[in-house]
Amino acid sequence: MSNHLFDAIRRSIAADDAVFIETAEGRWTYGDMVEWSGRIAGAIDTLGVRPGDRVAVQVEKSAEALMLYLACIRCGAVYLPLNTAYTLAELDYFISDAEPRLIVTDPKAADGIKTIASKYGALVETLDERGGGSLVELANDETPDFVEAARMADDLAAILYTSGTTGRSKGAMLTHANLLSNALTLRDCWRFTPDDRLIHALPIFHTHGLFVATNVILTSGASMFLLPKFDPAQILALMPRATTLMGVPTFYVRLLQHEGLNRQVVANMRLFISGSAPLLADTHRAFQERTGHAILERYGMTETNMNTSNPYDGERMAGTVGFPLPGVTLRISEPETGEILEQDETGMIEVKGPNVFKGYWRMPEKTKAEFRDDGFFLTGDLGKIDPQGYVHIIGRGKDLVISGGYNIYPKEVESEIDQLPGVVECAVIGVTHPDFGEGVTAIVVKQPGSSLDERAIRDALGDRLARYKQPKQIIFVDDLPRNTMGKVQKNVLRERYCNLYTARAGDD
Ligand code: MLC
Ligand code: AMP
């Protein structure tokens, strides 16, 4: 039977004994990948998961976790990865909204998850970071020759939640065609071949590590070194055997701080790619000076996969995200009127192409609001196209902080802080941070006489918000600056505290 994405992955296998994944524990060939994703697909099917059912997954990074992703694609389930940092309070919403048939969790988190699962009638199985757990035990009893469920181009492959700038998180529905078309485009633009060996140090619950990295490797028949997390020393040790690295800007900032980064250690590397957040032109220049490599910056988002990329051949221009990818149309519009703007004029970035998602899960109104009538998706990013055709991201039309490549919606943090006794109001902003790019910062007005302090706020947020969303600094003020309409002027606050983290780094 035809399975749009997995058929293409199968066709890309150069040889059954070619290495797909190498970890500290061992190697997985493409033959192993087909066998183990098949066994897990069999286990999922035996549990009663049917095509179109959601499978929610909150597990540590491992080769087996990627086999689980592929197993879902093969049995027609909709893969729903969840950040391992999410608290139970955050998970409850995702589970209630997506109504997964099955939740796969780390055994350490199973008790809490089971309580949530029982409310929504979901099954729970486990998978740990070493590839053990109840799901793998079930897979051991299955045969390796699983026959794929039929899935067409437009069928759902995955749902990834992105927080809403206002209100609830939205599940972005990605089809088999969205994922496959983008993987093939990136493979060709970035010249991936079966000879490539990617250093994979990103998390696998977001677009970057899951789709960009993994699907590009799979559709190239290439291999990857799968690291549990970012560790500069480990990455430098692998470079002589690797050819490519994909990372968020923080990876490059931290690699530059390492004295082991030099031309000799990168001699075997052919390509360094950055995305998910703006790469400072300074970082780009410093990396080129130290290694001789111009980092290739690209631009994407959960809803659209990748939209633009700097060229493989030709100038990789620092501070830009390059050209629209083949098949992607990108235009700039006036945010209020929707009028299409000319070259070099700044406005809302709109995109259209086979990469753009199908809509938000069970939110037809929100979906409608973010598409133009002619099918262009409103990214919420502000940018311009220069006379040479390079796309520049100038800012964000959405109130969003990007810290180390993770998105944090200030509204979500503000609502948690506003609820606390003793708080009058607060504003959460992103302030320039030397390591994370932006640091989540809370500016809080407390009630006169209240004994509320930083520790009380931190304690209260502890089991409500994932750690990366929690403010790096909390500042108490008497009032917040407002414009004549009464709206809090976050730009004034960002300006006021612009040296908060950089000054500190200098002081140390
Ligand atoms: C970890 N912490 C962070 C953080 N990551 N805080 C703010 N922002 C982050 N990104 C916190 C932890 O909670 C912990 O806090 C402390 O920092 C150290 O934790 P750690 O686990 O040791 O962190 P570290 O390994 O240093 O992780 C930093 C990082 C990681 C940059 C390597 O965040 C990372 O891998 N980011 C990549 C995110 C990503 O893949 N984004 C792609 C999204 S897809 P405490 O308080 O407990 O000490 C997308 C589309 C596209 O955007 O275009 O690609
Ligand atoms: P996410 O919702 O996590 O997929 O984040 C997508 C957002 O990350 C985009 O809308 C952009 O704001 C931002 N982003 C991704 N890549 C880049 C980049 N190269 N430069 C600047 N911002 C980026």
From TrEMBL:
Residues 412-487 form the AMP-binding enzyme C-terminal domain. GO terms for biological process: fatty acid metabolic process. Keywords: Ligase. The keyword Zinc does not apply. It comes from the Bacteria. Its EC number is 6.2.1.44. Residues 18-361 form the AMP-dependent synthetase/ligase domain. It catalyses: 3-(methylsulfanyl)propanoate + ATP + CoA = 3-(methylsulfanyl)propanoyl-CoA + AMP + diphosphate. One of its GO terms (molecular function) is medium-chain fatty acid-CoA ligase activity. The keyword Ligase applies. NCBIfam families: PRK07514.1. Belongs to the ATP-dependent AMP-binding enzyme family. This is 3-methylmercaptopropionyl-CoA ligase. It comes from Phyllobacterium bourgognense. The lineage of its organism: Bacteria, Pseudomonadati, Pseudomonadota, Alphaproteobacteria, Hyphomicrobiales.
